[in-house]
Design brief:
The protein is α+β, with helices and mostly antiparallel strands and 190 residues long. It contains eight helices and five strands.
C-alpha cells in the first residue's frame, strides 16, 4: 500500500504530559499538550520513525488515528488496544472480562496504561481482581490511591479548620549556651 507523503494524518497525544519531537531533516519541532490533536503529514511521521526514540513516541504516547498509516509505519498491524479511546478503556474496566482487561494491560501502549491508572482511581474501579492486576502489572496500588484521594488533610488533630497549626519545638538543646563572651579581644583590638 502506497501512501502519498503529503497525506495529512490525525495524531493524538493520549499521554498525561506533553510529548515533543524534532525531525531535523524537515526542520520541524512539534510539541503536543495532553489530549491535543494535530494533522501531521505522512512524510513527517515516516521521518520520525528514523529519529532515535521516534518509534517509541508514536507507539507509546501518540496515537495515529488512521489504522492503515499506523500499520505501514510500524510494519505490522498494531494491537487493537493501541486504538482504544477513553470510552473503550472505561468499558473494559467496568464491564469487560478479566481476560479482556489483562490483555489491555499486557498489550496497550504506555499512554493507555496511564489512563487506566487514572480512571481506576477516579471512577473508581470496583473490581477487586482488576485492581490487583493493576498492582501486579505496575506496582500501582489503586486502593491506596483512592484512600489518599479521599483523605482530606486537616493540619492535625489540634488545628481547627482554616487555622494554621502552631509551631512546636521538637528538638531541645541539651547543652546550655555559654554565658559571657566567647572571644576575649586583646588590648590592641579594643
Amino acid at each position: 500500500m502506497n501512501i502519498d507523503k503529503n497525506t495529512l494524518v490525525k495524531v493524538i497525544n493520549r499521554f498525561s504530559g506533553s510529548v515533543g519531537y524534532e525531525v531535523e531533516d524537515l526542520g520541524v519541532y512539534r510539541n503536543f499538550y495532553p489530549g491535543e490533536t494535530k494533522e501531521i503529514s505522512y512524510e513527517e511521521l515516516e521521518k520520525l520513525t528514523y529519529v532515535p526514540g521516534g518509534m517509541t513516541i508514536l507507539k507509546e504516547y501518540l496515537e495515529i488515528a488512521d489504522k492503515n498509516v499506523a500499520a505501514k509505519l510500524f510494519n505490522l498491524e498494531p494491537e487493537p488496544e493501541y486504538f482504544y479511546s477513553q470510552e473503550d478503556i472505561k468499558k473494559v474496566m467496568e464491564t469487560g472480562t478479566l481476560d479482556q482487561f489483562l490483555d489491555c494491560l499486557d498489550f496497550a501502549p504506555a499512554s493507555v496504561h496511564e489512563l487506566i491508572k487514572d480512571m481506576a482511581v477516579n471512577l473508581p474501579l470496583n473490581d477487586v481482581k482488576k485492581r490487583q492486576a493493576i498492582k501486579d502489572k505496575f506496582g500501582f496500588d489503586v486502593d491506596r490511591a483512592i484512600e489518599i484521594k479521599n483523605t482530606k488533610y486537616d493540619g492535625g488533630d489540634d488545628a481547627s479548620e482554616g487555622e494554621p497549626k502552631a509551631a512546636i519545638r521538637r528538638v531541645h538543646n541539651e547543652v546550655p549556651a555559654p554565658s559571657g563572651r566567647r572571644y576575649k579581644p586583646t588590648p590592641k583590638e579594643e
